[in-house]
Specification:
With 200 residues, the chain is mainly alpha-helical. It has two domains: 143 residues, AhpD-like; 40 residues. It is 76% helix and 0% strand. It has eleven helices and no strands. The chain is globular. The termini are far apart.
Length: 200
């Protein structure tokens, strides 16, 4: 699903089609595939997600249940999820984003971590792994670093994260793989310094 997400946001349609068919042929639950594609709109926009969702729909039809819009519920689960991902850096994150866009600070919680990442169908761990693949593909350094940290916080090991990033080479995205591994190494190096009491 992580590789499917990357193929979607990079508009690598032949790879996307191949990966999609393989997932469905091994009976990967349609809801998981749907959710992995749906959340790409947060990173690549509606046009990209619509193209990929349409392809899925042509194969499996509409097998999803619409979730009623509930902004209070989105805020509650969004704040919970964001705190899970950012830990003690949550308040700093929100304060920082508010300093240049109060709207984006609210949307980050409500739209991103609440409405989308708080949906059922994928665990938060599965979502984080897909997001790492997406952010490596699109080369968003700061966000990738944060979501690597988030993936570690929700119990994804370095082996899995490394594999997810290296797999981008399968869809001819070697530069994205290289970028992702550089950010992962930066994260890993900082963790080593911190654990050795050498943080600055």
């Amino acid at each position: 699903m992580a590789l499917l997400s990357a193929a979607s946001v990079l508009r690598k349609e032949k790879y996307f089609d191949t990966i999609l068919n393989k997932l469905l042929n091994v009976n990967c639950p349609v809801v998981k595939v749907y959710e992995a594609i749906l959340q790409t709109y947060l990173f690549a926009g509606f046009p990209s997600a619509l193209v990929s969702l349409k392809k899925l729909g042509k194969i499996v039809g509409n097998k999803t249940k619409y979730e009623e819009y509930d902004i209070k519920q989105y805020f509650i689960r969004g704040e919970k999820n964001c705190r899970t991902i950012y830990g003690n850096k949550y308040d700093k994150l929100i304060t920082n984003v508010k300093s240049f866009s109060p709207d984006m600070a609210a949307w980050l919680i409500i739209e991103g971590y609440g409405k989308v990442l708080g949906r059922s169908g994928l665990t938060l761990t599965e979502r984080e792994i897909c997001i790492i693949s997406i952010l490596s593909s699109l080369k968003f350094r700061d966000q990738l670093y944060s979501h690597i940290n988030g993936a570690v916080r929700v119990k994804s090991g370095f082996y899995l994260i490394t594999k997810i990033i290296k797999n981008l080479e399968i869809i001819s995205a070697s530069s994205s793989s290289k970028f992702g591994l550089q950010v992962l190494e930066q994260y890993h190096s900082k963790k080593k310094l911190n654990s050795a009491g050498l943080s600055f």
